[in-house]
## 1
Amino acid sequence: MSQPLANITEVLAKHKLSLADYEHIKQILGREPNLVEIGIFSAMWSEHCSYKSSKVHLRGFPTKAPWVIQGPGENAGVIDIGGGYAAVFKMESHNHPSFIEPYQGAATGVGGIMRDVFTMGARPIASLNSLRFGDVKEASKTGAHQRYLVRGVVEGIGGYGNCMGVPTIGGEMSFESCYNGNILVNAFNLGLAKADEIFYGRAEGIGNPVIYVGSKTGRDGLGGAVMSSDSFTEATKSLRPTVQVGDPFTEKLLLEACLELFKTDYVVGIQDMGAAGLTSSSFEMAGRAGSGMKMHLDQVPAREEGMVPYEFMLSESQERMLICAKKGSEAAIIEIFHKWDLDCAVIGEVTDTGRMELFWHGDKVADVPVAPVSEEAPMYERPMTRPSYLDAVNALHVDGFERVSNHAAFETMFTSLEVVDKSWVYGQYDSMVQTNTIKKGGMLDASVIRIKETGGALAMSADCNVRYCYIDPKGGAAVAVMEAGRNVAMSGARPLAITDCLNFGNPENPEVMWQFGQACLGIKEACAELSTPVIGGNVSLYNETNGVSVFPTPSIATVGVNEDQNRVLLSSFQREGNLLYLVGTTRAEFGGSLYLKEVCGVVGGTLPAIDYEAERALWELVIEANKQGLLSAAKDCSSGGVAIALAKMAATSGKGCNVIMNVEDEREIFAESFSRAIIEVSPEHRGAFEAMASKLPHAIIGTVGGAHFTCNDVAMPMDRLQALYFNTFQSVIEQDL
Amino acid sequence: MNVGIVQFPGTNCEYDTRYAFEQLGCTTQILWHKNDTVAANTDLLVVAGGFSYGDYLRSGAIARFSPIMQAVIDFAHKGGKVLGICNGFQVLTESRLLPGALKRNEHLHFLSRHHHLQVVSTDNAFLNRFTCNDIVNIPIAHHDGNYYIDEAGLRSLYDNDQVLLRYCDAQGNIANPNGSVDAIAGICNAQKNVFGLMPHPERAMESILGSSDGKRMLEGFLNA
């Protein structure tokens, strides 16, 4: 073991550890730590790995249901989807790296979430993403930089996912000034596995070998977990070396090799090396099983000479996995990985000491008890204060602004980047590989793939209206759960579970911490009410630059099952002459609305009323009526209200509509009351549908057809509607090229 | 019919291709790139889509040196039927089994969407179930689909009925998504036993996935 450190204050500062942490480490070790050990504690106790600020709030999330096979705590959550199969899914952020280096940051975000899924034994079959950018429309330097970030992130997501042969089938994207200094890149992946063949991240069985597979370890990404646990300043550009570089080709080989390995019975446990690399994978695998571990770091395949133990433990080189295998299977495992031209090395073994013992050419270079590193990690109950901005923001009301014609308001809202078609984005993603994609980017609401093995389909949707979360963090988070579930239900699938990705500002700011606490309460409430438990998630804090924090952004991805792949309900108009129903109650509710943002220029108001019973009833109606074949299309009403929902259905189908909505105030066609949907029904099913809908507020508001989109006093020829819808995004995003 | 499907490291459409041919009742076999022979009873070899060897250096450039490619080349030279889809098309041009080359898309973006194609020639095993000027709807998904051939080569392609498919819109008007010479989406060799196209017929086998036009293409091989 090497010498105690001389310049300890400097070392601690560099590792973002406090003096109290240092005393705690000394108490755990019973001696002074060396640099390798400091590095280990620094990574494991970083916000990113330890959830030290968020943990107290995450307790009590509903995580159980009869269909949940694995909840939070593993690499990804698992639900039973019937027919002997399981869906494995998770969503994760890669915000800080993507702001520093958009292509690689986003690409490795995709790579990381796919590894989380296939390490569980599942083949990744679908990806989504949830992206937030700043003022991309602006001519300013900030605007130009934002457009550069959009282009880089989109290309990075495509570059990685396309090469992996995993379809990116949808996502969401929105734009607010608060993201100018911190864009958000949340990547979701879902994999398919047999329900009784799930693999876990455990290292157990004394003497069982610990095997390293995948790419060689290099110096890239050193300290990434620590970097992403801090706010940004002007000096952040110098952090570029902490961003990992992705190689999707190697990951594709790693995927195929792992899937081949999973067909054998050699694996005891397996985990990917993500944030904090070899450190977190080894400690977590030993920790879950209550085991100890010996690792010989000189046996780890290295990309360059002269690397030291500290670097091996903290590198975040991509495309690597740690496997605990049955003793005696080493040669067979090595053969599989060599077939796929990948490195594979036995680097250690499981012990019963409960300690992580690290060696370098025979010398012990670190010796740390495993359990205390996670169990005794610092946990904060950070102070919380209701933000001072809320009163002023909540007091804003649509009546306080000058009236504009509905037609002018419509055109402004319909051309906002949040609304228009984003084929410029999703056209760069291979959405059809694996030949399962039924509903993809551009087809509105949830994305859907069929499952060849079961004949059913899986619907998934990632959502978060950040304006709602800004004016009411608790309600806004609950609405994200409602909306993601509603989108899934509109395809005829039953929502079963969610994964979340909680992106917030600086937790040391009591107002941000309050937002975080409130959002967690909202998720708990909505998930319990809607029977969609949380089966995994991720927290990203310190999304703050020069003191400006992002809006609370709890991204929610919901997954649901449709038993029949031939009964997937679409969201565009289907047939001229069909009836259009509005189901649900419309009130003059504009809090956090697109109308207030785009027409009045403010993010404010009070959140529309939440009614879980109405939400559940809407889901049931669509799911059951669709099973009976009564529906032609369904689309939820969200940002921009009924008018924008109808306009999207029209633009994407090329079919017009003639709608008269009964309103007290003409602006209500844009109101954003929750738990509503537009449902298209052919005239012959009118009676049967209305009988089923009798307990819900519902009304025929018009019919599909004609050369115009018409909704009350708003009318636009279809060719103009489609031109605006399909051309706006590209013209904005490519204006500098 | 026995279909062999080539699998390089980085190929990612081999299972889609297998599924498609099995739906047509074919027997399929995945051929690992280190194999240097092809089963004697093989009726069709498919070089499937993906990113062989990561498409590093140049799409298809490294795959061309794989042991299996010598077997594919021998098979083709003996008159065996070979179909290259997307990355497979790139591999076949790199291997000189097909003329021309595939460059980066003109606008430099990866491009994934359904695209209409106009059937240009039907006097071959691949498109014998179509008539000229038929319009089909088939997914494309590529970064390097910009087909290039010099003028003399182009003339010779037309002279021998080697241009199979051109990109068009739903009405049949030529629409060029990637900058290809003459909006060419697929070609065959002069002997009409080696076929290459950028669009993915194996992704257009069922109407619930958006189109079943690819089925008629692959079915062409059944009775050829």
Note: The interface with chain B takes residues 155, 158-159, 162-165, 247-250, 252-253, 340-341, 423, 426-438, 450, 452, 565-566, 568 of chain A (CB under 8 Å).
## 2
Amino acid sequence: MTDEQLLIKRARDGDGEAFCELVKRSKITVYRLAYDLTGNRQDAEDMSQDVFVKAYQSIGKFRGDSRWKTWLYRITVNRCMDHHKTHKRDSMEYDDDVQANTRVEFPIPRHTAPDRSAEANIIQNHIEHALNRLSRSERSVFVLRHYHDLSLRQIAETLDVAEGTVKSHLFRALRRLQQELSFYRKDLGLEERS
Amino acid sequence: MTCQQCRDRIIAALYNELSGDEKIRFESHLGTCKECSRMYAEMDETLRIMDKRERVEPEDTSWSGYEDRIMEKIRERELPAPGKEREKFAFRGAWVPSWAYGIAALLLITIGIFLGRSLFVNQVTAVNPEKGQLTSSVPVTSDTINAAVLPYLERSRNVLLGIINTDETTYSQPVFEQQQRVSRQLIQQGAVIRAALKKPDQQQVRQLVQDLEVILLQLANIEVKPGVPVVELVRKGVDRNSILLKINLEEMKVKSDGTPSTKKKTKYRS
């Protein structure tokens, strides 16, 4: 039994210290996924705490069939989906059923950092803007693959969908990102090589 | 490899998830197909742009006391400790998995169905005399209706034969109390059976039940007193519609169709 499995077993038996240790080891991963899914630091902080509360509630059901990290990823994605539904009215992002070619203009989010150059800040804003144009499902699949390095199969397991579904979401996500960021290809000197 | 096959694998290729053989065939296709090659290159470039994304990490202070805050939230929400929560479902100190409850429920339902079928398979109809409705402890199916029709016809025939064969000359005034009481029961049952006979191929038996109802109604309501030719009235009704012949034919038909025989005891609640 690995150290992590031992901690999980102890946490399942109600050992608070073991659960705290699990939180300590996973908090950054969960925060980062929450941030990738929401694009907002405050939301990500709040959400990651909710994820661990939910994990505490459900740890009795965790049987170790999947890895602890994968299980937390699933809770995080579900929590983000719920968050999105709750805040749907306030959101200006795309829904799954909105046509890809529908254009909804909205202010570009300000992902600025004082230590970055103005140009870098602009690029960051455009990248976040492009991510915001993805549907929830597309974004979940994309960030899990691209920023969390989960294989297509692992994503399918995490989201409990077929691998083919993951591929098609990812394909659509990439096509949309490509459209949103097409002007950069020239700016970054990529146009000439294609 | 076709273009479609190539596009189906483009995501796996971008993330280096193709197997050795597939990778060779994929790259070979890209070498010959400009369109697929262009699509691959554009997607690859998009991924490289996305690589430039930087996350905004939380302030260092956000992590201090993070675990304590979570435990505080858990306490605020009064969530039971995982071990404590499981005690609710513990049986004699042993952990009983949730799926075991599902299996137990399924087992109980199966036993219930088995007992129901064993004990009440022939309890086809029960008549609500006030409403004349079918109240059955089992669903009304063509089998259950057929099982009800045969005893109904047999009983009706017995009643009618009992009256028709009465020799009025041997009695000063025959008494038909018993037959009238049974007729009233049969009228109620007949109404229920007729209502359940809805299929086109049941039209004949439905008509027979209807004809029987008329005669039984007549019998049930007849005022038996001197001078009233009860036997004659019933006999005419039976002869006019060839009731007895039709009953015999219907019984033969039902039996030859392999439907439940009259030997099975069909219980009626009267």
Note: Chain B touches chain A through 42 residues (CB under 8 Å).
